[in-house]
Amino acid sequence: MTAAYTRGRLTDDLRSLGLRPGDIVLAHSSLSRIGPTERGAATVVEALRAAVGPEGTIVVPTFTAANSLSSPIYHERTRGMTAQEIDAFQEAMPGFDPAITPSTGMGAVAELVRTTPGARRSAHPQTSLAAWGPRAEAITRRHPLNCPLGKDSPLHLLYELKARILLLGVGYESCTAFHLGEYSSPAPPMGVYECVVADGRKANGQPGRQWRSFEAVALDDRDFGRLGGWLEHQRTDTGQRVVRRGRVGGGIARLLPLADSVDLAVEWFKEHRTG
Question: Model pTM?
Answer without folding.
Answer: 0.94
